Amino acid sequence: MIKMAQKFEGTSNYVASPELMAAVNVAVALEKPLLIKGEPGTGKTALASAIAQSMGKDLYIWSIKSTTKAQDGLYVYDTVQRLYDSQFGVEGVDDIAKYIKLGKLGEAFKSDEQVILLIDEIDKADLEFPNDLLWELDRMEFYINETQETVKAKNRPIVIITSNAEKELPDAFLRRCIFHYIAFPHRELMEEIVNVHFDHVEERLLDQVMETFYELRAMRDIRKKPSTSELIDWIRALELGGIPPEKIKKSIPYAGVLLKKDEDLALVQRG
């Protein structure tokens, strides 16, 4: 029988649905990467921080860009620095290990304690990137050619992978992951999230904010729907500006906090 030594139950500043908490705990128990998908602003990246906080573990973040290669997460051999040192007679230039810089995955493997490793926005990378990580994530080890050293994970890290679903991930990679889609929060859950960020929001203001926010998200022609983070910023702006609920009902003050596309702003102003 599989035992769950540490259970994730959310934190005081991260509201997680029961389904999300279950997915995290299953991934931890089965020692598989947890792949989190969802639209921007649904708390995918913040989840890793919440898990680290809840379990009392360090968080290593590997932020993926379009130019990122799998090798970057393992190690980099700094040939330029070695050449520079050799030209200026720096001692120890023959010690190649000095010029091996571990990436975030390598650091997680080397850690004396189990850590949380966030591979953030994996879908930004090249299509082959996920497959290039299969061996390392399966075996929890990699080989450094320059020093002929095999780096094995001292403690298997808890791997959280996020994706905005900009491109499909390879089937072979998906088979090795526990998958969870974070749906956009419904109104009741969103109010819980808001209450985490604010000591108190006046009830009439919160009601009108929620009504307007979900009306905007429901508009068919909106190109970029406002996200949770934009809602939080909008509430802060409304409170700072002393905007009464009645004014929000007639128009949308500080609309640029919520909407980030010219077409969306024009659409709302016409309406």
Short key terms for the protein model shown above:
Rossmann fold, alpha/beta, 271 residues, elongated, single chain, two-stranded antiparallel sheet, 14 helices
CATH topology of the largest domain: Rossmann fold
Q: CATH homologous superfamily of the largest domain, by name? A: P-loop containing nucleotide triphosphate hydrolases
Q: How many individual helices?
A: 14
Give Rg in angstroms. 23 Å
Q: Largest beta sheet, briefly? A: 5 strands, parallel
The average pLDDT is: 92
Any guess at the CATH architecture of the largest domain? 3-Layer(aba) Sandwich
Tally of structural domains: 2
Explain what this protein looks like in three dimensions.
The protein is α/β, with parallel strands linked by helices and 271 residues long. It has 2 domains: 18-181, P-loop containing nucleotide triphosphate hydrolases (Rossmann fold, 3-Layer(aba) Sandwich); 187-270. It is 44% helix and 14% strand. The strands form 3 sheets. Strands 2-5-8-1-9 form a 5-stranded parallel beta sheet, sandwiched between helices. Strands 3-4 form a two-stranded antiparallel sheet. The protein has a two-stranded antiparallel sheet with strand order 6-7. The longest helix has 16 residues, at 203-218.
Topology (elements, then pairings):
Elements: H1 18-30, E1 34-37, H2 44-55, E2 59-63, H3 70-74, E3 75-77, H4 79-87, E4 100-102, H5 104-110, E5 116-120, H6 129-132, H7 134-139, E6 141-144, E7 149-152, E8 158-163, H8 171-174, E9 178-181, H9 187-197, H10 203-218, H11 228-241, H12 245-250, H13 255-258, H14 262-270
Short description:
The chain has 271 residues and is an alpha/beta fold.
